[in-house]
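Many introductory courses stop at the sequence. We go one step further.
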Amino acid sequence: MLTIVRKIYNLTKKKTGKTIGTVNNSKNINRNTSIELLRIIAMLMVISLHAINNALLFKDANLSMYNTVLLRFVDTLSQVANGTFLIISGYYMIDRKMNIKKIFCLWGKVLFYSILIYIICTFFLEMKTFPYESFLPILTGQYWFISAYIVLYLLSPILNILANKLNQKQYKYLIVIMVILLGVIRIIFNRAGILSGTMLPVLMVYLLGGYIRKFVQPKKKQYYFVKYVLLAIIFTLVFTILSIVANILPKAYTIIIYFLSAFREYNCIIIVAMTVFIFLKFLTININSKTLNKIITLVAPSVFSIYIIHININIRDYIWVALGAQNHLNTWYFVPYLLSLIVLVFLICLAIDLLRRGIYFLLKKIPIVEKGISKLNEKIGKLNSKLNYIFE
C-alpha cells in the first residue's frame, strides 16, 4: 500500500512539474497548497454536517445543553463547506477555458462508487434505491452537489465571459444584488418563490469567487479567521436562544424552526460572509513544510471521492449508527468523540480511494488499457477544443 501511495504522489508531481506548495502568489493561476488544504478541511466539514444530520443528533432528547451548544458551534463552523468549494471554483475557473475532461472524470467516479456500493449493499443492507438510480446517480439526483457542480461547469464559459467584461463597479453591483436577493430576501421571505432553486446560490458563490480573484488582494493583518469564528459564536448563541424559545412557546415553534433551517443555508448572507473570511484567510497562508505539502498533494485529489462514498444514500445512515455516533450523549467528551468518528470516516474513505487510484495506476501500465485510455482522452480533447472554440 505504501508503495502504491508513493507512486500516486510521484505521478501527481510529474503531472504538475513541481510541488503545488511552491506557489505563494494568491493571484497565480496555479493552485496554492493552502487552498488544497482548505478543500480537505471543507470536506471534513461536509462529513460533520452529515454526521449531525444523518445521526439526528439535534433531535435526540437525551442530548445535554452543554453538548447541544458545542454541537451547534461545530455545525455552524461547518456551514461554509459547500460555499467553500464553490468559491474556490470561481476563484480558479473565472479566467480559464473549459476542460470537459474534468466532468467525465467526476462523472466516472460517481458512477464507479455508486455501482460498487450498490452491489456490496445488496448482500448486507436493505437497499434504499432502485437499481437504475445507482446506475444513473447524477441524473436521478443521488448527489445534489455533484449534479449542481457539473451544471455549473457547463455554464462556466458563459459566466466567465460575463464576469470578465464587467468592471469592478459593475461586478460589485452584480454581487451585492445577488447577495441581497439570495442571501437575505430568499432566506427570510422567498424560499419557495421566484428566488428558489438550487442553481441560483451556486452561481452567486461562484461569481463571488471570481470577484475575489479579479479585484481583492487579501491582507494578513485583517483577522479573517477571528471574524469567521466570531460570527460562528454569535450564530451559535442566537440558534441556542431561539431553540429554547421554540420549546417554551409551542405556537411559535413552526415559525422559529423555519428561520433556523433557513439561516443554515450556505447562501445566507452571514454564512456567505463566513465563507469569504475563511477563504481569504487561507489565501494568505503559505505552507513551507515539504512533508505537509506532500500529504496535501496526495489527499486533495480524493476529496470528491470521499464525498461520493460517505454520502451514498444506501450507507449514509448506517455509517453513523454502526460507529455509535449517538453514544455518550451526556458525557463531556461527546463532541470530541464525534469529531474523532468524523476523522475516521474521512480516513476510511480516503484509504478506499487511494486503493482505487493505485489500481488505476497499475491498470494504466497494461498496453491495451493504456491504448484505450489514450484514445478516449483524444476524443475528449477534440470535444473540448470544439466547445472552447465556441467561446473564443
